[in-house]
Amino acid sequence: MHELSIAQSVVSTVQAAVGGRGVLAVTLRIGPLAGVVPDALTFGWDVVTAGTPLEGARLDVERVPVEIMCAGCGTTGERTASPPWRCDACDGVCAPLGDGRTLEVGSVEVEDDVAVGA
Amino acid sequence: MSIIELKTAVLAKNDHLAAALREDLAAVGAVAVNLLSSPGSGKTALLEIVLTRLTADGVPVAALTGDLATENDAKRLARSGAPVRQVVTDGLCHLEADLVRDHLAGWLPAGTQLLLVETVGNLVCPASYDLGESLRIVLASVTEGEDKPVKYPTAYRWADLVVLTKIDLAEPCGFDEQAFLDSVAAVNPGVPVVRTSARTGEGVDDLVARLLAVRPDTRRDDRPDDRPDDTDPARHIEPAATAGTGR
User: Fold this and answer.
1) What is the 3-state secondary structure (H, E, C) of A70-92?
2) A24, pLDDT greater than 90
3) Quick check: is B220 in a domain?
4) Average model confidence (pLDDT) for chain B?
5) Residue A79 in contact with residue A73, Cβ under 8 Å?
6) Quick one: which H or E segment has residue A110?
7) Which of A16, A24, A104 sits opposite B235 (nearest CB)?
8) Most buried of the four, A20, B17, B113, B201, by CB within 10 Å?
């Protein structure tokens, strides 16, 4: 249960990038082997963002797939859920081919500090 | 409203500190080994034997041991005669690279070749944190069940070596070793598995030989084909792009 530490890292990463503007939404990209449970992140989000420019911001989770291959028949595929992964073709056990540990802040929606053309 | 594309790794700060620590250790002729396992896997017992053996053989070895509370493990390990330091995390469920660096500063004895870092007993959180190690070991005891690897895939996927402990209890526990090896292979095909017993000493020679063979660049997940995301130069750098697309 290190999701609170992760959420705090997300807040400091975003804060450093937005230059004091209000944050409306944060997209977090998570691979199936990142070792992070999205629900647990969402659970602590309100607490961690309180009193920061991220207060009230929406947390969107984008699940990044990892490529997998069946150890038995060699069929490849992609998965976004945690293992174990079963082969679509033969129900054999699949191993990851790629990294799967993606854990990054993808994009951030911020308020415009100056109204442009409005 | 504007969109800022950050593409910044959440653990980038830890990754950078860990990489710097690995280089700093290499510069003084040392390598670190990170030991992960669930609580009660026999990590400390095995570590005590390994430290005792290496110290007796004249290998300059030291150990850091992480726990949420108490200095009990450091006291146990100190019986080996090796320099040992406890890292008490005050409830934090894992070690991070800066904690390791801070505890090494001014303490790591000159000439140390091998630094064994026993992270907090937990197979979930520590798996996400590079501690500057050049070898990552995941330990599993035969009493824990055969499907631990598929239950904790992140920990096992990034192990460079799997150590099976308490092998002397395999029979009374009805441990199905082949099922365990299949479970390991499902998440980390090809990773070596060493069978050990702290009670009988089985496998200790093999483990010690593997520890002595560790070099700064031996981590298996440094293989370029395993890190496809690293071809994206934006992944590990600080946010630079602040130009948004207005809507």
Assistant:
1) ECCCCCEEEECCCCCEECCCCCC
2) yes
3) no
4) 85
5) no
6) strand A103-110
7) A104
8) B17
Confidence band of A113 (pLDDT split at 50, 70, 90): low
- DSSP bridge partners of B19: none
Contacts with B157 from chain A: Cβ below 8 Å: 33, 96, 100
Residue B102 has pLDDT above 90, yes or no: yes
- Domains contained in chain A, CATH given: 3-110 (3.30.2320.50)
Q: State how many domains chain B has.
A: 1
Domain containing B127: what range? 17-214
pLDDT of residue A38: 83
Answer yes or no: is B21 within a domain. Answer: yes
What are the tokens at B40? 């009660």
Smallest Cα distance from B215 to chain A, Å = 23
Instruction: Give me the residue from A18, A36, A84 closest to B4, CB to CB.
Output: A18
Evaluate whether residue B191 is within a structural domain.
Answer: yes
B92 interface with A at CB cutoff 8 Å: yes
Task: Using the predicted structure, report yes or no on whether residue B22 has a pLDDT greater than 90.
Answer: yes
Mean pLDDT, rounded, for B115-140: 91
Q: What residues of B are in contact with residue A28 (Cβ under 8 Å)?
A: 10
What are the pLDDT digits (tens) for B180-202? 999 998 888 899 999 999 999 99
ipTM score for this prediction = 0.76
- Does the structure show a pLDDT above 70 at A50? yes
Q: Classify residue B2: in a domain, yes or no.
A: no
Cα Rg, chain A, nearest whole Å: 18
Is A13 in contact with B10 (Cβ distance < 8 A)? Answer: yes
What is the model's pLDDT at position B73?
Answer: 86
A9 to B11: CB separation less than 8 angstroms, yes or no: yes
Instruction: DSSP letter for B69, please.
Output: S
What's the CATH code of the domain at B207?
A: 3.40.50.300
